[in-house]
Amino acid sequence: MNKQNVIVFLPAHNEEESIAEVIGSIPRHFHPSVTVRVLVIDDGSIDRTVEVAKSAGADYVVSLPQNRGLGAAVREGLFQCEKKLNADIAVMIDADNEYPAWQIPELLAPIFNGEADYTMGSRFLGNIHGMRLHRRLGNYFFTLLQSILLRKWIYDGQSGMRAFSKQAMQEAEIIHDYNYAQVVTLNLVRKGFRVKEIPIEYQVRTKGQSFIKFKAYITSVFPAIVREMKRPVKKVNINKTAHLLLENVKDRKSS
């Protein structure tokens, strides 16, 4: 496989103050065989998120008629990438500028190298300076729970920066509108997809506000995890070389 069409999508709800900086930080030309375009999933924003995103260079904007939740927005983003925009790889990054968009090439590298099908940017392998205590504790709890359920160590189960191969995009099932972070990882790993975490630099939000509330997160996400683990899933026959870039194909043949 040579040319790769990468769609970076941003779920966004009232992020007019930060979304332009995120879009402007997305690397567009880091490899001659990789085309990068940006999609914004506007989750019922009532501010200038859409206008600012278009002015900042978003290639596509899809607006949901009302605020449905982060899980629903990510589900829509994956649908648009796969069905409408013919993406080879989908990258999701939060629109709040807490995640380093400039590290997207590092997030994609394991997929391009044939080492993984689904990657996550890990703040806990990188830098979490400034993260509030209650967020750390919540992350520790849910990440430990994921690790126990999957029998695989995960460091940052709540990361808002992820990349999906074509097959992972097609197979990812998000059964919860409020959030996606735990259920999609449980779903994909149980189906046999290879996951890898990449160290990233966490950036404390300086604009806008998070709409994720700790109590609501606990009471909403835990039942979703239980539901996901009760659902039967089938192992997927994964094409592990689907996204190899040309130089990686040559390296494999010579080795």
List the helices and strands and how they pair.
Elements: E1 4-12, H1 19-25, E2 34-43, H2 49-56, E3 60-64, H3 70-84, E4 89-93, H4 104-112, E5 118-127, H5 133-150, E6 161-164, H6 166-171, H7 181-190, E7 195-201, H8 214-230, H9 246-254
Parallel strand pairs: 1-2, 1-4, 2-3, 5-7
Antiparallel strand pairs: 4-6, 5-6
Helix pairs in contact: 1-2, 5-7, 5-8, 7-8
- Provide mean pLDDT, rounded: 89
Low-pLDDT sequence parts: none
Radius of gyration: 17 Å
Number of extended strands: 7
Overall tally of domains: 1
Helical content (DSSP H or I, runs of 4+):
25-40%
Stated plainly, the CATH topology is called Spore Coat Polysaccharide Biosynthesis Protein SpsA, Chain A
CATH structural architecture: Alpha-Beta Complex
Question: Looking at the structure, what is the overall shape?
Answer: globular
Helix and strand composition category: alpha/beta
Distance between the termini: 18 Å
CATH C-level label? Alpha Beta
DSSP helical segment count: 9
H-E string: EHEHEHEHEHEHHEHH
* Spatial strand order of the main sheet: 3-2-1-4-6-5-7
Question: Which short descriptors sum up this protein?
Answer:
255 residues, alpha/beta, Spore Coat Polysaccharide Biosynthesis Protein SpsA, Chain A, seven-stranded mixed β-sheet, 9 helices, 39% helix, globular
Describe this structure as you would to a colleague.
- The chain is α/β, with parallel strands linked by helices.
- It has a single domain, classed as Alpha-Beta Complex (Spore Coat Polysaccharide Biosynthesis Protein SpsA, Chain A).
- It has helices at 19-25, 49-56, 70-84, 104-112, 133-150, 166-171, 181-190, 214-230, 246-254; strands at 4-12, 34-43, 60-64, 89-93, 118-127, 161-164, 195-201.
- It has a seven-stranded mixed sheet, sandwiched between helices.
- The chain starts with a strand and ends with a helix.
